Amino acid sequence: xxxxxxxxxxxxxxxxxxxxxxxxxxxxxxxxxxxxxxxxxxxxxxxxxxxxxxxxxxxxxxxxxxxxxxxxxxxxxxxxxxxxxxxxxxxxxxxxxxxxxxxxxxxxxxxxxxxxxxxxxxxxxxxxxxxxxxxxxxxxxxxxxxxxxxxxxxxxxxxxxxxxxxxxxxxxxxxxxxxxxxxxxxxxxxxxxxxxxxxxxxxxxxxxxxxxxxxxxxxxxxxxxxxxxxxxxxxxxxxxxxxxxxxxxxxxxxxxxxxxxxxxxxxxxxxxxxxxxxxxxxxxxxxxxxxxxxxxxxxxxxx
Length: 303
Ligand code: 13P
Ligand code: SF4
Prior knowledge:
Layout: H1 3-16, E1 18-23, H2 28-33, E2 36-38, H3 40-47, E3 54-58, H4 61-70, E4 75-78, H5 93-102, E5 106-111, H6 116-119, E6 124-126, H7 131-137, E7 142-146, H8 149-158, E8 163-166, H9 172-175, H10 179-188, E9 193-196, H11 202-206, E10 210-211, H12 214-223, E11 228-232, H13 237-244, E12 249-252, H14 267-276, H15 285-302
Parallel strand pairs: 1-2, 1-3, 3-4, 5-6, 5-7, 7-8, 9-10, 9-11, 11-12
The structure holds 1,3-dihydroxyacetonephosphate and iron/sulfur cluster.
């Protein structure tokens, strides 16, 4: 990357007392300039520990909202105002209230990929890295898992003692990774292990050797003695996989493993956001009070 850009970013970070956090799905160059890169859980938890007064978030809006909910006093700036996750909107408040009436002992478990409005109606948040562990710790026999049906079904499969109610939300990027494409890719690379994110379909999960969040996939591949892997998640993950494992081979299974919202974030947008400290995340106070609770409960239960 251009030395001048690096220098400008370093100067602006110092001037604004800012730290740059990025998700593994953003563009390689953005990952390169970030101070920290991680999965959704790591970034949410890290946001509570960084000393800087400004967090510049390179990710989609629910990530910035979570960082702001957990850090009322900090300024959280999004690298791109329009980078939003469609799945974050795929749960209805009216449906949550209806399920609560129908199942009085239910726990509403909300994947962190959700708006603050949906979190505010939930009992606990989870991410793909801690969902099984957190749900297993809940005393409730009934679980309403929102918004992602695929992750919900994966968690349910690990916890047969609980009764799950599912919601029909989905991640279009992971849903489009087709089992047929994976079967063809396995024929091309018969020695490769299949590493899959739990937002993928049940058919794809059934064909996988390892299922985990983006960080868990990277850790698994890094610790594995295997040399070849087929990767069923967004293609931004290849940057870190290759950085950490220069001698290993990683293959996508289709041409469509790309999240258009994550890829909106460019180095230029990071520079602009650092200069202007806009757009800053701002949430209604009453909503924040409610939406913060399930996030804090997640941090507690994940310890
Ligand atoms: P993780 O960061 O938990 O792996 O989730 C992936 C994702 O879809 C984020 O948008
Ligand atoms: Fe949302 Fe899927 Fe993109 Fe993640 S990869 S931000 S879940 S659309």
